[in-house]
Amino acid sequence: MSALNSASFIQDSEVPFHVANLDDLHQKHIRWLRTLPRVKPFYAVKCNSTPAVIRMLSTLGTGFDCASKGEIELVLSLGVTPEKIIFAHTTKPQSHIKYASTRGVDMMTFDCEEELLKISACHTRAKLVLRIAVDDSKSAIKLSQKFGTKPSVVKKLLERCKELDLEVIGVSFHVGSGCTDSLAYRQAIEDARHVFDTAVLLGFQMKLLDIGGGFPGNEGFQIQFDEFSKVINEALDEFFPADSGVQVIAEPGRYYVDSAFTLAVNVFAKKVVMDDNDRVMMYYISDGVFGSLNSTCFGEKRYRSIIWGPTCDSLDRVTATYWMPEVQVGDWLLIDNMGAYTVCCSSDFNFFDKADIYPVLSRILHEIFTASNLYPLDPLHYFMCPPQMLGPMNLSCLPPLMSAPEQCTH
Ligand code: PLP
């Protein structure tokens, strides 16, 4: 986190805002293609559904993991075609399955018999992907308790698919979000191999392996990502060699968006309180736990500071102790790595403004995309420079900004 004094902003505004660096998405994608060449990414829309993000990734050629009717609607409305979507939620409301059927979204996950019955009633063309529970003990957010079939019931479930005349095309798993152990992927890929073998024996034509999400995406992600990729590539070569004809996809969320978003929040109130003989700063900022800062903690030293979100709820404490230089009312704090599970989880509790989002694109990328007719964004879809930043402000997170401010539609 860093601080900017109020003079850096020529506009008199307190509304928090994100700058979404679309160049960062592009760089992440290039790295993905180089490092995991066999794995096609299907971006997990749940992680951050900002339209400029979806448009950019669609242009770059990713597919999309959608978890609901609303996410499918959004992605289709932005020009994505149905075969580039996997409906990757194992427990879906029936109306959402019907919607997927009418829109030609056929690929979907399941993990229990009850889901099969719904699918067989509403979407007979579905191409099913069996999600298995895998070891997620080394991940920040565990998913296998809620989702995924246990190995002991895999065969019975696949037999039920046969009885219902449903087509199963593959296996998926998720090692948990914020995974810290590359070996979790290796074990899960091996587990998936066993399920493939069982399904092939039952007569299914298995052609898809979906290795889920869990990849790091904040700044400094590279070392861990490269380590994960090495282990994944080796495990794929061992258990699903290229000549097996199996298509491998993944559902990265955090990987693509975390470092691309930087949040600017306004310090709109301040109190200095004494704790023993220490001056402790209490800051009240224009976004908080009920907004983009629902999953944030900080780390660096100066004055002990307590940072509160804007709402009347005392739960809205962004951090209880953060050591930072003193700032003043009117100053702004910049918080980076704010792309994953932030804007999508915001509420408008107390009617405080939600953070605006200003997607920005560097001139060079803009020119490359425009020249090759690639980029579906017209300038109205992204900012060349957010209005608050017309002053002498230097955000190291940003690409070189275009000089003219533009309208933002997001
Ligand atoms: N796929 C599924 C089914 C998920 O539930 C999630 C996150 O919860 C993701 C993909 C994205 O995970 P991550 O952001 O860790 O890449």
From TrEMBL:
GO terms for molecular function: ornithine decarboxylase activity. CDD domains: PLPDE_III_ODC. It catalyses: L-ornithine + H(+) = putrescine + CO2. The keyword Lyase applies. The modification N6-(pyridoxal phosphate)lysine is found at K46. It comes from the Eukaryota. Homodimer. Only the dimer is catalytically active, as the active sites are constructed of residues from both monomers. This is ornithine decarboxylase. It comes from Sphaeramia orbicularis (orbiculate cardinalfish).
